[in-house]
Specification:
The chain has helices at residues 2-37, 40-61. The protein is mainly alpha-helical. It has a single domain (2-61), classed as Methane Monooxygenase Hydroxylase, Chain G, domain 1 (Up-down Bundle). The protein is elongated.
Length: 62
């Protein structure tokens, strides 16, 4: 049973990691645009989102 759970987790991670990376890329573009526009509110939102995505990436990578 343990091997089955590990295999399922590995498969789920393989599917989830590319999605998280795409979300990070999109949020980095959003942050860049906000920095150019000087939109402090969006800058802070993007930083918070990137922090959360980073935590997810670390969690699913291990």
């Amino acid at each position: 049973m343990k091997h089955v759970m590990e295999a399922l987790r590995k498969r789920e991670a393989e599917e989830k990691l590319p999605v998280i990376r795409m979300e990070i890329d999109y949020e980095l573009v959003t942050l860049h645009d906000a920095m150019i526009a000087g939109d402090e509110e969006q800058i802070n939102k993007s930083k918070k989102k990137l922090s959360a995505l980073r935590k997810q990436l670390i969690e699913w990578s291990s």
